[in-house]
Structures
1.
Amino acid sequence: MKQYPAREFCLKCLITLVLIALFIVVSFVYLSFNPLALFTKQAMSDVVIYTARFFPPDLSPSFLQKVWSGVLQTLAISALATLLAAIASLFLALPAAGQFGRSAKVATRFFLNFLRSVPELVWAVLMVLAVGLGPFAGTLALALHTTGVLGRLFGETLENHSPNASQALRLAGASNTQAFIYGALPGIYSQLLSYSLYRWEMNIRMATILGFVGAGGLGQILYYELSLLHEQQASTVIMAMLILVIAVDMISNKLRRVQMHSLG
Amino acid sequence: MKRVVYFRDPDALRRFVLTCIALAILWPMMQLAQFDVFALFEVSNLKVFTNFLIQFFPPNLQLSFLALVLKATLETLAMATAGIALAMLMAIPLGLIITYSLSISRIGPASGHRIAKLGRYLARMLMLLLRGIPEIVWALLLVRVFGLGPIAGVLAIAITYGGMLAKVYSEILETENTLPAKALLMLGSGRINAFLYGLLPSASQELASYTIYRWECAVRASVVMGFVGAGGLGQLMDQSMKMLNGGEVSTILIMFLLLVLLADYLSLIIRRQLA
C-alpha cells in the first residue's frame, strides 16, 4: 500500500505556481482579451444568431452525395499518404538505424526530423504550389510529414530488433538487402504494420482539414461552403467530419482491445 | 551437370490473390485522390515552386520583419497559454461530472440514479462534440463571429482541448487509487470534498503534467490555426506564402521550429519539477 505523507511546505513549487499564474495573466493581457467579455448580452446574442444559421443542416440527396464523395476522398488521401510514407520509411529506416554507417545515420535522422517538424498544413501549402490545387497535393503533404514520423519509428524498431537473424544470413553469404528482407523484416513486420495503422488513424483526422488550403477532401468542401456563407451546407459537412472522426476512433479502440486480448 | 533452380512458393496462390485484391482497392483510391505523379514535373508548376524554394535562402532577416515575427511568436505563445487556461476551467467541472469514482449515485440504490446517469451521458456527448471537431474547424467558425485575430484561436483551443482534458482528467481520476475517495463518499462527504481530499493528492502530479503536455500541443496547434486567420505565426506565414515571399516564409519556419523546441523544453522542465 502506498503511503501519502503530508506535504512539506515547498517554496519551489509555490514559485512555479505563481510563475505559471503570472504567465497566464500576462497572456490574456497581451492579447487584450477579457474572457468575461464573452458573457455580455451582445456577444451572447451574436453567437446565438450565428449558431442558428447552421440549422437545419442541408440533407438534400444531391448535397449528401457530394459530402459522401468528400468522405471517400478524405479516406483515399489518408490511406495513400500512409502507404507512400510507409514505403518510403522502409527505405529510410535502414540508414536511420545506422546500417550504412554513422554519417548516413545522422544525416537521415536530421532529414526525418525536418520532415516531421514542419506541420502537415504547411507542407500542404507548399505542395499546392508544387502540383496545383487538389487532393494530390494533400496526399503528398501528408506523405511527407508521415514519412518523418514513420521513418523514425521504423528506424528505432529496426535498431531495437536483435540483429542475430540478419547477421547469420549475412555470414552465410546473403547480401544486405536479402539479410534485411529475410532476416529482420519478418521479426519487425507486425510492429511496423501497427505503427502504420496508428498513423493512418491520425492521417484520416488530418486529411479532413487539409482542404482549408486547397488540398482536397472534406475540408475543401467546408471551406468553400463557408466562404459562400452557406452555413446550412457547412453544418452537414461538419457533421460528416464528426461522424468520420468518431467512427475511426471507435473502430481503432475496438481493434486495439481485440489485439490486446489476443496478446493475452 | 545442369543446375535447376526452383522458385516454388507454397504460398504463391494466396499471395497472388492478395496482391490482386490490394491493386483492386488501390486503383480506385488513386483515382479518388487524383494521383498524378506527372503533375510534380510539369514545367509551369516546377518553375513556380523552384523559384519559391530558391528564395528560401537567405531567410529574410530585416529588423522590421524580425520584430513582426517576434510579435507573432509572442502572440502564439499567449494564445496557447490563454487557451489552455480556459480549457482547464471547462475541463475541471466536466471531468468531475463524468468521473465514476466520484459518483454518489453509483454507491448504492439512490433515488437520483437516473438523473445522474443522464447528466453524465449529456456531459460525455458534449465532450465528444467539443473534441471531435478539429480545433482548426472551430477556429474557422469562430473567426466569423469574433473577427480575424487571436481571440478566435484562443477560444478554438479552449473548446477542443477542454473536451480532451476533461476526458483524460476523468480517466486519470478513475485509474488512480480510488479507495480514499470512496471511503469519504460513504462517510457522507460531498463530491467536491471527496475529490479534494481523496483523489487530488495522489493524482495531482499526473493531472498537472498532462495539462502541461497539452499546452505544448496547443503551441503547435496555434501556429497552424493562423492559416484560417486566427492570428499568431500561422497568419503571418499564410500572408507570406500567398505573396510567394520565400525569404519571409523561411524565417517564419525557423522561428516556428525554435518555438516548438522551446515549448518542448519548457514543458520538460516543468514536468520534471513536478515529479
2.
Amino acid sequence: MSAVQDQAHTSQPAPGEVLLEVDNISLSFGGVKAIRDVSFDIRIGEVRAIIGPNGAGKTSMLNVINGFYHPQEGTITFAGKTRRNVRPYEAAASGIARTFQNVALFKGMSTLDNIISGRTLHMKTGFLWQLIHWGPAEREEIANRRKAEEIIDFLEIQHIRKTPVGRLPYGLQKRVELGRALAAEPKLLLLDEPMAGMNREEKEDMSRFILDVNSQFGTTIALIEHDMGVVMDLSDRVVVLDYGRKIGDGTPSEVRGNQDVIDAYLGVSH
Amino acid sequence: MAGAVAGSGTPEDTFPKLLLRNARRFSARPAIREKDLGIWQSWTWGEVLDEVRAFALGLKELGVKAGDKIAIIGHNRPRLYWTFTAVQSLGAVPIPVYQDAVAEEMAYVLSHAEVAFAVVEDQEQVDKLITLNEELHALTHVIYDDERGLKNYDHAQLHPFEDVQALGRKALAGNASAEADWEAAIAAGKGEDVAVILYTSGTTGRPKGVMLSFDNILISAVNANAFDRLDETEEIIAYLPMAWVGDHIFSYAQAYAAGFCVNCPESPDTVTEDRREIAPTYFFAPPRVFEMLLTQIMVRMEDAGELKKKMFHHYLGVARDVGERLLNDEEVGLLDRLRYRLGEVLVYGPLKNRMGLSRLKVGYTAGEAIGPEIFRFYRALGLNLKQLYGQTEASVYISMQPDGEIRADTVGTPAPDVEIRIDDNGEVLYRSPGVFVGYFKNDEATKETKTEEGWVHTGDAGFFDNEGHLRIIDRAKDVGKLVDDTLFAPKYIENKLKFFPDIKEVVAFGHERDKVCVFINIDLESVGNWAERNNISYASYQELAAHPQVYETIETHVRQVNQDLAQEPRMAGSQISRFLVLHKELDADDGELTRTQKVRRSFIAEKYTALIEALYDGSTEADISTEVTYEDGRKGMLSATLNIRDVERFGTAQMKEAAE
C-alpha cells in the first residue's frame, strides 16, 4: 500500500501555456477608476485566485474578462485571439463561463432545466427543428440531457433534479449555478465568490467540487474569494488587487509573505 | 416455486453455482439494476455472469487465492454485489464493511480480518484506506468502482474496476481453458465452506466477525422464499448497508436463490423517489423508515386543501375498521367492502403509489419494536407488513409472522426449521440450520454464545404468549430490578415513549435505583413542524429542545406512558418519575448510538453521569458540556443547562377507579 499514499491532492502549478492574457487594462466609470493598468495571465489547467479587499476591482475584472464591461485601455488575449471590446455572448461562445456573486438562476425552473439552459451554446438545431422534435433535434436533446445528467451526477445533486431551484437552500443553489456554468463545457470558468455566505461544511464541499472540476475536466478556473484559507488551499497562483491596482502576483505562499498585501489587508499606520 | 431448493446436498449449494444456474435458467431476465445518469440500467443474469467471470479472473491475475479475505466497502452498487460472487468463486471470503464508519472504526475490522484486498466504491473510501495504510500490513491492492477524483492518485496498487475486468478478459482470451478451469473451481466449492464474514456492530465491546457458511445462508434464504412464496418475478430495492446481514440475505442470498431482481438506488438521498419508480414487491425496512414515511405523509396532509384533508381522514377511518380484517381474510360485510374499495381508488391507491409500495406483496420490519399505531396504519392500507425477529448469528431468521397471524406486539412464530426455547432466566435461545459457524478468530466468544448442542444465546429476554407467538421485551442483560425488586425493562419503557412522533430517542435508567428516570431526544422534523405552525421560533436543536412548551408536550406523553404502564401488573412499578430533554441528538459519530442506530446504554451512562446524578438527587436543573464530533471528524464542545421535570405516577388501584 505504501505507494498509494504519496499523492492525495496534487496541486502543483501546471506549467501550461497561457490561456488568457490581461494586458494593461484600465477601466473607469466617469471619474471612478475601477481598474488601473492591470496585467496578469492565466495558464491552461490552473486555478487562479483573484483576491483583494472590498472595492478592489475584483468583480470588475471578471466583468472585463467576460465582456460585460469594456475597458478604456488595454487588451485581452484569450486562446490566442486578442480583443478589447467583446460582447458577453461572444465571450461565452469562445469558451468562457461564469457564476455570479448573487445567485442568478431561473428560480421557477427545475435544477435539471437550469443546467440544460447552460447548454444553449451547444444547441445547433433551430427553433423549428426543436418544435418538430425529430431527427437531429431529438438526438441533440438526448446528448444535452446526457451532459446535464453527468453534471448532476458529478455535483451529487440527483435528489433535487426535479426541484424548482427557488425552493432550494442557498448552498445548493450555488452548486446548481456551478452546474449550469459547467454545462457550457468552458475552457475558462470564472467563479465570483463561489463560497460567499456558506457554512464551513458547505465550503468544504464546494472546494472539493472546484478541485474535482479542475482535475477531472481539466477546466481552467479563475475565482474570486474572500476566505483566505480556501484561497491558499485551492489556488495554484494568486493575483492581489487593491484600489484597482495589482499589488501582488504569485504562488499562495509568495503572496502571503508580500508586505504590500499584508498592508492592504491589515491596514498600515501612518 | 421457480427458485428450486438450493440447500445442502443439492447441486447449487454456493452462490457461484447459483449464478451459473440462473444464467442458464433466467438468462434473459433482469438480475440487477442501477439508476445511473437518471436512467435505470439493467443487467440480465447472463450479463451478470459475464461481469462476474471477468472480474473473478482479473482478481486471480492480481493474486487473489483461496482463503484470502477481501473487504467490500461502499453503498449498494451492482459491482460490489458482483464482487461477492467473484470472490467466492475463487474460494476467497468477502467481508463487507459499513461504508459510513470513520477510518479508525474501519481499521479494527480490516486488520482483525487480515484483509488482503479491498474493493471499494469511491474516493471517500480510498482516502480512508490511505490514512490507515500504516496499520494495514496485509492489504496489497485496492480496487475502486467510481474513478471520480482519483485520477491523480498513484495507481501502483490502486485499480479501477474496469481494468481488473479487462485483465480477466485478457486471461480468458489468452487461455482456452480459463473458463472451464474457473467453472471447475466453482464446482469444487462446498456448502459448508465459509461464504462471508459479517462484523456485527455490537452494542458493547469490539465488533465480532460472524462466519456464515453457504449452507447457513442459502438454507435460510430458500426457506424464507418458500415461506412468503417469492419467485423470480420479485423486485426489491437494495438500500440498507451491505455490511448488514439483512441486506446480505434479502438483496443477495434470496435474490440468487429465487432469481429475482435487485435495484440499486441512484444515491442514498434518492431512495424514496427511486422506490416509487421501481415499486418493489418485497420490501424490508427498519421501523424508523416506516415512522418517517408516515410522519412525512401526515405533515404533508396538514398542508393539503380542506377537501383532501377530509377525504383522507374519512377513508383512513374506514381503513382502520376494515382494512386489517380484509388483509387477514376475515369476514367483512358487502357495504364495508364497497366503502373500502372506494377508499382504495380515492386515497389508499395514490398514497401507496407515493410511498412506492403499490405493488408490495410482502413487507417486513425488524430490529426494533414498531409502534402499534404505525404498524396498523400500513396494514389498514392493505399492505402486508409483517414483523420478524432475527440476528446475524442466525442468518437473520429466528421467528416471523405467518400471513393472517399478525400482531403489532409479537415477532411471530419460529421460522421454518428453527427451534426456539426460553431459558430459566428468560433469555431466548434458538437452534437452526442458519446458525453461524463461529466468530472469526474468537473461539472464546463462540463458546459463550453457542452451546455444544448448537443452541445460540440471543441475549434477548422474551416469552411465548398464549397463541404461541414470541414476544421480546428487552436485552436480557439490560432487564434489571429497582431497589425494591420491581422488574425494570428499559427498552420496553423507551419503546412506549418512542411511539410518539415527537420523541426520537429515549434512554431509561433505573437498575438498582429507587425510581425510573429517562433522557429524551425530541424528533426535530416533527417538533420543528409543530413549532412552525405555532409560531415558535428557534435557532437550533438545542434551543427547541429546551423550549418550555416542548417540555409541556413531552410531559403529557410521559404521563400517558405511565398510565399505560399502570395497567400492566408486571410493569406498573416501573413508571417514570422524572425526565429531561437532551440538548443534542444522540449520534453514532459521538459513539452514543451504534451504526445501526441502537442506543449504547453504558456509554451514555458514563458520558452523562452528571445528568443522571441530577435526575436522582432531586435538582431541577443540570449543567452539562459534551464533546461533539462533526461529520468530517473534527471535534467541538457543546454546553447547556437542562431542566428536569417530575411526572405524576399512577397507582394500579387509581386506574381501576378511573375505569369504573
